[in-house]
Amino acid sequence: MTPATSAWAARDGMLWSPSLGALGLVAGFTTRAQGSMAGSHHPSDEQARNRAALAERLGFAGVARVKQVHGREVVRVEGPREPWPAADALWTDRDGVLLGIAAADCVPVLVADPLGPIGVAHAGWEGTTRRVAAALVETMVAGGAARERLVAALGPSIGPCCYTIDEARASLVAERIGDRSLRRGRDGAAFDLWSANAAQLREAGVREIEIAGLCTLSGGGDLWSYRGRGPDGRYGTQLGFLGRPGPARSPRGSRSS
To answer: Measured between alpha carbons, how far is 122 from 59 in angstroms, rounded to an integer?
Structure first.
């Protein structure tokens, strides 16, 4: 199935995934209106309060996070905990758990089995070329998700319109995942993170893939961008989030259809 670009609805100062929302899930992306959610340019206690306020607003006890390291490690979580494990993807088979991925240009990848586990991944150029989205899918399937039921959404991130990389990095991308998502030019290569991650999800057996198609650098929506940071170098970080409402205690690892 060809990935579909679908405008994420702006509501209550956030952006929302239509495909995952239609499954009864809470799925979207914060904007500047909620304040910075992670990173080193804002006080950590302020960002912790912002995450707590977001979780409460969405009806959850907190946000389950990982310490993102630009890799492909996937961990299972049962709820918010500290210290955060070092990984770039997390999943759960329990209701009432809100998963969060910090992003300021990288792709937030949200994946759900409507009747089973849900998961999220952080896919910058490193995570994309290390196939973190596929690693998430395989881990979720091993944990009880039915591959044929999976629905994925790629949230706002830097788009192919604005993400140019130098030739050394382009060569590394091509070596790892091929050059289908690269458009080489005189000043470097445009790297299409959206098509690269969609292709990996499709190859992993995900049939329904939604792409927000909103660039964090040029697409508006009151979003922070790492590449669009000001002269002082400061910027904030949004949170891609995914959760299934309900008490955080019921495993949902069924393979039945």
So the answer is: 23
Nearest to 118 by CA among 87, 155, 160, 76: 76
pTM of the model: 0.93
Q: The domain 4-158+194-243 is classified under which CATH number: 3.40.640.10, 3.30.465.10, 3.60.140.10, 3.30.450.20? A: 3.60.140.10
| Closest by CA position to 110, among listed 100, 119, 122 | 119
Domain ranges (residues) in the chain: 4-158+194-243
pLDDT in tens, 3-16: 766 689 999 999 99
- The average pLDDT across 141-149 equals 98
pLDDT at 30: 97
Residue 219 has pLDDT above 90, yes or no: no
Pairing of strands 208-211, 4-5: parallel
